[in-house]
Amino acid sequence: MRRRQFLAATGTAAAVGLSGCLAELGRLYTSNEPPVVRNRPNEAYVPTHVEGMKMVGTADAGDYRVGLFYSYPHRFWVMDDEDGDYATSKTAVEPGDDVHLMASVWDPETGTTVPDTGLSVELSRDDELVSEEVIYAMLSQRMGFHYGANFGLGGDGTYEVRVNVGATSLNRFGELAGRFESPASATLDFEFTERDRDDIPYTMLDDKKGDPGAVKPMEMEMVPLGRAPETLPGDRLGSGMASGLRLVGTAISEPRFGEDTYLAISAQTPYNRLVVPRMGLSATVSGGGLVRFDDRLEPGLDPELGFHYGATVPSLSADDTVEVLVDTPPQVARHEGYETAFLEFDTTRLT
User: Fold this and answer.
1) Is the Cβ–Cβ distance between 220 and 19 less than 8 Å?
2) What gap in Å lies between CA 218 and CA 144, rounded to an integer?
3) Where are the domains of the chain?
4) Phi, psi at residue 176, to the nearest 5°?
5) pLDDT of residue 222
6) 97-126 tens-digit pLDDT
7) CA nearest neighbour of 305 among 206, 185, 198, 171
8) Does the CA dihedral 210-216-144-30 come out positive or negative?
């Protein structure tokens, strides 16, 4: 596969394509993916390169809105579980892979990203099925949470992409209550040429690759990024770090959460506040010599909080001690830069 890369001749960079996609100025050449960094840290790190992407389009699917994008096919890592010992394993680009398709799902009324729906894609051309598969829930530094996989196509042409979105089991609050309870589908036309794909910016990060940190997420006007609020509503309970994840707690007393105070924990990536779903989280709340709560937190979705983990806790106050334990690491595939992070956790006290 031919890839266009711009090597820095002047040390400057220019924005190209979608906002946030960078292409280095200089000589044009082609290459495969660079080798994975050796001795990667067990935390989020700067990847070897970043890629731009092109938008296929957006469409409504029942209560959802779906955005579809593509870029070069690339490696990613999936979760492995051997008797509770979690690790990631690399999925390499295979011969015949032409694109990496990515889909985002959100609520069009509030702009809230809706993770954990399950999603499948059917690709057809001239009424003939080209490919059909359930695609991975993923986390990347550029897009945050999304769904994605590598696909082979049948050359240049127009493809019909049917995106099937499942119902969500998340607890929903406020304007989101009662929504997303049924599966839905959307169909988009995908005009593909190798030339258009090979014009997507592809930037090497030789000076920073492997360093602890993260690249900036893309900013797209039409598509919300799954990002936690800078300040959570309610009374702050503190924050803490767990295996590179930032856990932020708040206590909210609002009718939409019920009669008792609601404990919400926002799990975020450490640098850009990207929400991290598909975890098993539990908490212990104590105060005044009593344990007020010691149980699992349920994943939830709220227009003000966004995605979070929560439970009602009677008499919860900002003076209570809150300890959070990640029982199950995020069960999401990871793009480069996250594959060594968020795997081993100790109990974290919010301060």
Assistant:
1) yes
2) 9
3) 50-195, 235-349
4) -90, -10
5) 87
6) 999 999 999 999 999 999 989 999 999 999
7) 171
8) negative
In contact, 33 and 74? CB cutoff 8 Å:
yes
State how far the alpha carbon of 286 is from the alpha carbons of 290, 312, 314, 315, in Å.
6, 14, 11, 11
- Give the per-residue pLDDT at 23: 35
User: What's the rounded Cα separation, in Å, for the pair 254 and 129?
Assistant: 49
Q: Over the stretch 293-334, which tens digit does the pLDDT of each residue have?
A: 999 999 999 999 999 999 999 999 999 999 999 999 999 999
For residue 246, CA distances in Å to 106, 260, 343 come to 23, 26, 13
Which residues in the chain show pLDDT less than 50?
Answer: 1-31
CB 324, CB 310: distance < 8 Å: no
Identity of the amino acid at 315: S
Distance of alpha carbon 74 from alpha carbon 64, whole angstroms: 27
Name the nearest CA neighbour of 51 among 85, 9, 20: 20
First to last CA, the chain: 50
Residue recorded with tokens 């292409």: 23
pLDDT of residue 220: 83
Helical (H) or strand (E) element with 124: strand 119-125
Place of tokens 């690759």: 209
Residue 332 phi/psi, 5-degree rounding, is: -130, 150
Domain 50-195 has CATH 2.60.40.2480: yes
Question: What is the predicted pLDDT for the residue at 3?
Answer: 34
For residues 119 and 208, give the distance between their C-alpha atoms in angstroms, rounded to a whole number.
Answer: 34
Alpha helices in the chain (DSSP H): 194-198
CA distance 208 to 204: 9
Just give the CATH number of 235-349: 2.60.40.2480
